[in-house]
Input
Amino acid sequence: MFSVAIDGPAGAGKSTIAKAAAKELELIYVDTGAMYRTIGLACLDDGISPEDSKAVIEKLKSIVLELKYVDGEQRMILCGKDVSDDIRTERVSMTASVVSKIPEVRAFLLEQQRGFARSDNIIMDGRDIGTVVLPDAQVKIFLTASAESRAKRRTLQLEEKGIGADYDAILEDIRKRDYQDSHREIAPLKAAPDAVIVDTTELTLEGSIEAVIDTIRKGMSGK
Ligand code: DC
Output
């Protein structure tokens, strides 16, 4: 099996870029952030504070989490219900970032994530894929961009959807999530020593996709 690990901070374009690369290279795309988001949503739905580790761990016992592919798109199924759209709010983002600090939550998802790599050729994205989940991935990429350019892109995305967006608030959220994700004790966001760093601050989306596909192709041909 062939695995590509893509890690990086929130808003670096990982999922858009990984999806495009997966399509071009005929790999299955696995978005692990969506799995943390689904756990975050399950807690919010039950009125469980993400800071209350004990209650979150207890909640895990009743969580059945599945990934389904519909027209090549990953869908998240929580206890039989498709929650793929519900997990995309800012509130769920922040909750996911908090519950992802809990070792039991990470352990709960780890085996399922490794299982995908055993059964398919995949591109998996997240924060700890190259360092913890798939340390033997044939290609590791750390995709990053300045916090300001990530906030600017996010603001534009929301404005295009007709949703009012406040650049300063978005930048603050991004900085907060970067801090939380890279300062937790277990599996913090960091580049694997053997990862190729792709900084997209100065690149267009097309340029970023090209850079990632190029890196993967080199890895596939063993260069
Ligand atoms: O990639 P994302 O924004 O959808 O991820 C949501 C949160 O989940 C992120 O802030 C941190 C956490 N996460 C993680 O801890 N490990 C991963 N492999 C993926 C996401």
In short: The chain is about 50% helix and 15% strand.
